[in-house]
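Researcher: Please predict.
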Amino acid sequence: MIRKMIFCCLFLAGIAHADRVSLPDDMYDAFERAGFSEAEIDNTSIDNGEFVVLLDDEHLNQGRIVNVINVICDFTRSYPKSWKGAEFSSINLLDVSQEKEFIFRGGIKTCLFLPNDAKYSEIVRYSEVKRHY
């Protein structure tokens, strides 16, 4: 638990100078319904046009990636006007240690074209994985 808190603090300190925008209130509700932890919800924001989600998971697995991308994209398709002033060009998922990052390119535009309940094979076409050391 302490390790997670330290990483959250480091993450927040790293983005302190970023152009940070709050998410629409209904997006927080969608995350809660999807089973996100309180820490994950608190550490989710739009920073410099990137939708950043710091996950509690030690590793980014396909099931979790699919769940997060689908929650964000389903919300985006249902409420596209909610993002006015909070537009994002990518969705960046980070594991708790921030060593691995999954980047879903295209942001809102790609979400609008992605099918409902997209599979990993559909999501990965617009994605890349980065390792931070």
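Model: Helices lie at 2-14, 25-33, 38-42, 62-78, 107-113, 120-123.
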